[in-house]
Known about the structure:
Elements: E1 4-8, H1 15-23, E2 41-46, H2 50-59, E3 63-65, E4 68-73, H3 88-96, E5 100-106, H4 122-153, H5 157-174, H6 189-194, E6 203-208, H7 219-231, E7 234-238, H8 240-246, H9 251-260, H10 267-278, E8 281-287, E9 291-298, H11 303-310, H12 312-316, E10 318-324, H13 326-332, H14 335-340, E11 345-347, E12 358-363
Parallel strand pairs: 1-4, 1-5, 3-9, 5-6, 6-7
Antiparallel strand pairs: 2-4, 8-9, 10-11, 10-12
Amino acid sequence: MGFTCGIVGLPNVGKSTLFNALTATAQAETANYPFCTIEPNAGRVNVPDPRLDRIAETAAAEKAVPTQLEFVDIAGLVQGASEGEGLGNRFLANIREVDAILHVVRCFADDDISHVSGGIDPLGDIETVETELMLSDLESLERRREPLVKKSRGQDKEAKAQLALVDRTLELLRAGRPARALQVGENEAKAFRMLQLLTSKPVLYVCNVEEDAAAGGNGHSAKVAEYAAEAGAGTVVISAKIEAEVSQLAGDERREYLEAIGLEETGLARLIRAGYELLGLITFFTAGPNEARAWTVTAGTRARDAAGAVHTDFARGFIAAETIDLDDYLSLGGEQPAKDAGKMRQEGRDYIVADGDVILFRFNV
Length: 365
């Protein structure tokens, strides 16, 4: 099961530097000119989870396999993109394909790196990007509306319901608010997702600060955090420059470097976890002598569907999910001791998987 976070923002805010650090590669070209990134770069990144190492040690597994997220570095957007400026429609189409948006905002001053609007104004930058996405959504919905009106006149109940949803969303967008702010009923959720609106995607604002502000942020990032809190979004403070340097170090060197600059962990570790949470994901584990592995599913996933994330045969021939709470698995010393202590549960196909569950799937095909 794949989950993708698109890294977006204005040109020269540090998107590609951040992507390279995330993936620990030089995959995305970085340079001091707009539209350095043209085709989107993609990379898969391990999600840090210390629980996996403890499970692997308890199970005496030969290896530990973490779960992953995919990050996509998308070309920088400029004012007028919704009308074709810059890379325009190509940029917007790439955003449409991701599950969540990591909006990188420039919160540092550097005379050697030009700013597309001439000065550091993170809230203005956010407004530029948000406005272009909303304008694109407005155009998309207005094109859809006319056929729905015609169908509604023919007493098409489904078209009437969809038209009502479109009109409510248009009203919100025209008021300058993103589609994600719309209150959507449970019976409307699928229809709303089918609209594929850019501003319906969850957003995490990534404040790219100077090196000295990596630990606590600065005045610019504080403004972004206040804005995000009011908008119901999240924020992460990060110095892409530091993360690019840290990504080239390993083991003790990395720990020593982080300690020297007053950081307990990399900003990227926080960013990856925040992206994971942004998408409403949870982790369950499988463990045995060959490997301990973390698996990604959305919160609310049923046991049979979780089994399908491991292998389609597991879902097709599902019998039961033998489930152990993480604390019991670790404190009792693994699968067999937990089973002997009566802490292994036989769960059926409709069991809602909990974050941290250690599961052995029984199946027959």
